[in-house]
Amino acid sequence: MDSISIDSRLNVIAHDGTWALTGPAVTRFCLANEYLSYLSDRRYSPRTVRAYAFDLLHFCRWLDADGTALEAVSTDTLLRYLAKCRQEILPGQYGDNVVDLHSGRSVGYAPATVNRRLAAISGLFNFTTMRDPSARNPVPRGAAARRTAKGARSGLLGHLAKPNPRSGLRVREPRRLPRGLDSREMQALFASLRSERDRAMAGLMLFSGLRSAEVLGLSIGDVDIARGWVRVIGKGDKERRVPLDPDVASIVQSYLLVERPETNETRLFVVGKGPHRGQPLSGEGLRRIFRYHREKTGVVAGHPHALRHSFGTALAEAGVDLAVMQALMGHDHVDSTAAYIHLSPSHVRRSFDEARARQREAER
Fold first, then answer.
1. How far is it, in rounded angstroms, from Cα 190 to Cα 184?
2. What secondary structure letter does DSSP report for 227?
């Protein structure tokens, strides 16, 4: 059992893949632990449950310092907490007019972090009203969300699906396009990878568009080297099949035959050395690998997800149909896939040059 905290009154513990609040003050926030257990029972991703546990930890610590019980939270309480998140001075921030050039902020958490915390809080109070319809939900309801629920967009009558209400307690997030790697960066990063395991993982992200969690979740039986397919379990336990690049298939086969240690573990990628040899490679282990090679090569954008972005960009530049891209990348909504069309520089340049050529022809 691991305890992760710097506050003795309220902590977060991890045990057997579940997360919960603990500490002397936890009796005031039992509802938060019931909600986290509910998420685990619903088979939410362990990474999502972990993130929500730390989000609720931050909120409950603030309530504890404020002297407010969870049952007494009002809309005004949530607005004060939102202001706290936006105004708190974090390590590396100096307040006033000193603005970090990377984040563009002088104080406060990133909008995405704030919105994720608000989503965790909203889910907590929705869980409360689900169990007790008479309970008051302090989260204000805003305008209807643009996107409909999962599954509601499919089928012959999918166009008739009504949007779900979205919480009005959100902050605006800057819309950033996915950042892929250029050919020089990819070559440098791949040249730095020394083991077949690391090259296979990077290849699956770059040439099959897998998320890092999807790569780590692969079992040996999910990879059909002979037929060139990979069975992927994505977000929300949704299954999809993606093509396997022949060169990556060769690397995976070499890893299985030569490098992978003898173990009863069914996961494809395991630890190769040390006391945890033969055990599944963790998310932190994967991040540590890429962190080392980023520092070694100087490719500062060489994060695991950047390889997936490079895959999406390559598909867009090749003119692959949007629906096919969506299926390959496992996106819930086509809007996520459309971002790659917008960012593809060669696609934009080609369309621009063709339009200018037609314009010049018409002027003659």
1. 10
2. T
Catalytic pick from 147, 267, 305, 347? 305
pLDDT (0 to 100) of residue 101: 45
**347 annotated active-site:** no
Which residues are CB-contacts of 77 (< 8 A; sequence separation ≥ 6)? 63, 66, 68, 138
Task: Of 27, 1, 22, 25, give the one whose Cα is nearest residue 12.
Answer: 22
Q: Which two tokens stand for residue 92?
A: 């590396």
Domain assignment present for residue 207? The answer is yes
This model's pTM is above 0.85: no
Is residue 44 part of the annotated active site? The answer reads: no
Which of 197, 260, 293, 308 is catalytic? The answer is 308
Is 211 among the residues known to form the active site?
A: yes
342 is catalytic: no
> Is position 340 annotated as part of the catalytic site?
yes
Residues 6 or more apart in contact with residue 345 via CB below 8 angstroms: none
Q: Is the dihedral of CA 35, 36, 40, 43 positive or negative?
A: positive
Q: Which of 211, 260, 293, 309 is catalytic?
A: 211
Return the SS3 of 61: helix
Q: Please report, for the domain that includes residue 129, its CATH number.
A: 1.10.150.130
Domain range for 77: 2-90+106-143
Check 44, 81, 109, 340 and give the catalytic one: 340
What is the predicted pLDDT for the residue at 235? Answer: 81
Could you tell me which residues come within 8 angstroms of residue 236 by beta carbon, excluding any fewer than 6 positions away? 150, 332
Confidence of residue 190 (pLDDT cuts 50, 70, 90): very high
Active site annotation includes 293: no
Catalytic residue among 235, 240, 267, 303: 235
If phi > 0 it is left, if psi is from -120 to 50 it is alpha, else beta; for residue 251 that is: alpha
Say yes or no: 335 and 188 in one domain.
yes
Between residues 238 and 173, the one the model is more confident about:
238
The CATH number for 254's domain is 1.10.443.10
